[in-house]
Amino acid sequence: xxxxxxxxxxxxxxxxxxxxxxxxxxxxxxxxxxxxxxxxxxxxxxxxxxxxxxxxxxxxxxxxxxxxxxxxxxxxxxxxxxxxxxxxxxxxxxxxxxxxxxxxxxxxxxxxxxxxxxxxxxxxxxxxxxxxxxxxxxxxxxxxxxxxxxxxxxxxxxxxxxxxxxxxxxxxxxxxxxxxxxxxxxxxxxxxxxxxxxxxxxxxxxxxxxxxxxxxxxxxxxxxxxxxxxxxxxxxxxxxxxxxxxxxxxxxxxxxxxxxxxxxxxxxxxxxxxxxxxxxxxxxxxxxxxxxxxxxxxxxxxxxxxxxxxxxxxxxxxxxxxxxxxxxxxxxxxxxxxxxxxxxxxxxxxxxxxxxxxxxxxxx
Length: 364
Prior knowledge:
Number of strands: 13
Strand content: 15-25%
Order of helices and strands: EHEEHEEHHEHEEHEEHEHEHEHHH
Oligomer: single chain
Largest sheet: 7 strands, parallel
């Protein structure tokens, strides 16, 4: 094991601190918190912009540097910070990182933009299609969030060796998602689903599946985002389907506890964090029958074919018909399943990786 004197200093690409907390930002933030809890020394470098209130950086070493707050800052300004520095390594947890910083470990959460370009805007697709292989080639190592995503990276970028990729799983942010002893009783039975209104999240088929379902409504939490392709048909929904938009963290926690089940109909994911967040709150999960969700949810979920509206409807109806028996069983399986995922375990993987890389000759 390297002594602290011989170990590289860790720097974190902190642009995410100026962005709303979605899945990839939550990953970055929880990795930072876990490394801090383990006593790892690191510095977060971020743009001169407001750090959003959802990130409590008290006690962390944060440096604001340069100008701008965009891809330009990440690709052209951020690298200048390292011009006179030696024996360091940079973690970019939310995606590309700068292609001009070679002593970096980049994170690839998924390659959905290559799986189906129609899921995204043209500008997003062409930017990431161009930049991702450049970032991959200029990185010391790649981290990703599941064995499924690791296989996808090797499929799309066959020039990489398997040894160049390390899996460091997502986990539940337990400050945000935890058990509530006192809950408001809902006025109706409902299922919950949470994500951005992105075509690959498959909300339209899920909404269509609720046509004819009685005794259970569907609440959809999430907003559209300009980086995604348009989700057609979402303006004409069955009466028992409600679009709630973006909600506060507290309201989302309440919804997870009040819902009879959580449904995750996604067609493609790198990990799929919402199902284990639901499990942490004791909410039974119905999920797409795709490889990554089997990896993440194990035997704690009921699965359906996400491309078959009738199969989605049948799975929901079976849950409704057997709700009283299924809920406690699925709740206990969910609690057991989430014990497989830990931010501290993932942070330990990254700390070991960085120290191993420091022993190799091409670290500055």
